[in-house]
Amino acid sequence: MDKKCIVVGIGNPYLQDDRAGVVIVEMLEKDGLPCQTEIVYTVGFEVMDKIQGYEQAIIVDACMLGNVPGSILELTVDDIFSTHALVNSHAITLGTTLKTGLLCFPDDMPKDIRIILIEVKEIKEFTQQMSPEVEAAVVTVVDRIRTLVAAMA
């Protein structure tokens, strides 16, 4: 597969709504999306390692920012640092990781990085059953990613 596009899902596959990013990637893999996919369990440097060498990266994660559960935010790396609500979230860790990659490896990092966050409802229970709001958002995000990838082709 070429190094045009990668979709990275972040989350814990066993923790209720936190598993949204993982489920999205699994759904895209079943569809045969013409794009590389990866699942990671943290927002650390592993994310940077996975996206290096690609032209476009789409990163999907759950968030807890106080929005209505199932809300979808589509952001750039710069949005993470300029949006007040994101500064105290774990999205800032993802943003810091990506900024570090852009500063240290400017020729290897994707020129187009999109971050899609889904607001969680419940993340305390170890279950593979997401809340209905997040489950509906997952379907919407899968469709959005398909559209983004098709536009690149």
Distance between the termini: 13 Å
Output the strand order for the largest sheet. Answer: 2-1-3-5-4
Total helices: the number is 5
The CATH topology assignment is Rossmann fold
By DSSP, the count of extended strands is 5
Low-confidence stretches: none
Coarse structural class: alpha/beta
Proportion in β-strands? 15-25%
Q: How much is the average pLDDT?
A: 89
Just give the CATH class: Alpha Beta
CATH superfamily label: HybD-like
Oligomerization status of the protein chains: single chain
Supply the CATH architecture.
Answer: 3-Layer(aba) Sandwich
Main β-sheet, in a few words?
A: 5 strands, mixed
Helix share bin? 25-40%
Q: Would you give an account of this structure?
A:
This protein has 153 residues and is α/β, with parallel strands linked by helices. It has one domain: Rossmann fold. The chain has helices spanning 20-31, 45-51, 77-82, 91-104, 132-152, and strands at residues 5-10, 36-40, 56-63, 72-75, 112-119. The protein has a five-stranded mixed sheet with strand order 2-1-3-5-4, with helices on both faces. α1 links the parallel β1 (5-10) and β2 (36-40). The protein is globular, with a radius of gyration of 14 Å. It starts with a strand and ends with a helix. The model has no long low-confidence stretch (mean pLDDT 89).
